[in-house]
Amino acid sequence: MSVKSNEYEYVIVGAGSAGCVLANRLTEDPNVSVCLLEAGPSDRSLFIQMPAALTFPIESDVYNWKFESEPEPALHDRRIGQARGRCLGGSSSINGMVFVRGNPKDYDQWVGLGVEGWSFADCLPYFIKMESFEGGRDPNRGGSGPLSVTRSEAKHPFYDAFLRAGEQYGLGNAGDYNSGSQEGVHVTQATIRKGVRCSTAAAYLRPAMSRPNLTVKTGCFVEKIVFDGTTAKGVGYSRNGQAEKAMAGREVILSAGTIGSPHILMLSGVGEADHLHSHGIPLVSHSPGVGRNLQDHVVASLRFRSNGADAINRKLEGFGRIKLGLEWLLFRSGLGATSFFEVGAFFDGGSGTDYFNLQHEFLPFLADFQSGKVMLGDGFQYFVSQMRPFSRGAIRLKSADPKTYPAIHFNYFDDRRDMVEMVDGVRKTLEMAGQAAWSKHSAGQLDAVGRDSTDADIEAFIRNVANTEHHPIGTCRMGTDGDAVTDAVGMVHGTKHLRIVDGSILPKIPSANVNAPIIMAAEKISAAIVHQIA
Hints:
This protein is an alpha/beta fold. It folds into 2 domains: 1-103 and 189-296 and 394-412 and 471-534, 3-Layer(bba) Sandwich (FAD/NAD(P)-binding domain), CATH 3.50.50.60; 153-187 and 298-386 and 414-465, 2-Layer Sandwich (Cholesterol Oxidase, domain 2). 26% of the residues lie in helices and 22% in strands. The strands form 7 sheets. Strands 1, 2, 11, 12, 13, 14 and 25 form a 7-stranded mixed β-sheet that branches. Strands 7, 17, 18, 19, 20, 23 and 24 form a 7-stranded antiparallel β-sheet that branches. A 3-stranded mixed β-sheet has the order 5-6-8. The longest helix is centred in the C-terminal third of the chain and has 19 residues, at 515-533. It is globular. The relative contact order is 0.19.
């Protein structure tokens, strides 16, 4: 079979949250040629662009890789689905659009792990550079960046009850939680622009696609990196049944994500030697950390019935759905312009850490976003998740066949401290949901756990319902020790001309929905590459 080959200076694998940033920033120099390869299709779908339609791409086999973990021992051997974007914009095209930077201490801890140049002071300029915040520019916020960040309206009475209940419990109001104090209740900020999802495809890629030095190819399934010794020369991929290559004169950059990037590395011969040998893969570079250090935010949902017809889902059925769609199509406004995650909180629990370690997200109706099928119902629900887990998982090969998904082991609650924090988080959530602010809305709980439950009862509940926030990171982490896969600018140890820029390089999970930190990291490393070119 003949193999079609093309040559560029940079080949980027994955047009997701990081890849779109890189494609834009590197091609600002008209003398730099870039090829961006994406396995999925375009993001030109109403169901991606309309914020309220986020359940559709989550359920889709077209826009979602639909990974699934191996049986999780601490969760009664349940397999946990992991939604990862498979289209232009990647996971920023299918996520809940909640924008959270994380706490400055998160990034300062990275420096303590041997990742120089990643303190919060080092990262802040890139958070500022990437955003256009609705509140305008100030010393902590950006006003002219590509990514639009808006304040949610939070007008529904359930949102108000959530905020007041948190304050009645004793939490403060954090205000702009992305500038200053993060702890307390807040109205969320979202990557939405004039009622439309603002993914990195919309913010970064679309404005760059007319540049003659940028080639964007969809439907390209990358199977391996092409090496000459330990030097990356390009990638091999299949497109429409045809084997093709994209060769890179300067660098191959993996931006395939926390699951995709280590998978491609191992298929290409970069990983733990014995593991690769067991699958008959010739070794290029022994890198035992590839696939290790997997971290995710585990979440438990607490569901409550509501009085009357206050839940928003009544407006998402029948004629209400038609009205929602028409209002959004005509004016880009109304319920179609929200993801419904419009309030939240950060608070402390369990371990006595020096800053908050738990998060609330909230919906004014009942829904299960973790399963493959999303059903809506009357009520409201709190999602409590642990921000900085102690447990670590791993991604390993099942086969040398690139089309076979890797084995994903999250190892949730492998470290007992994680369960202690989550039990305390659930208990405090039950206290907040029992405050007077909810008295005229709540008609009782749906879950078999309450304020009088024992710790053992709450733990059993968590093991039955715990799931993922879809925030995996860390499987090709930056660092200088033997288990680190990349250096502080994403260059893969033991190889040449190979870089990784995506969530896999983050050494420790931030106290945040991870999309914003990943975009920041891509901005930061893009600047380093541009400086190197100059």
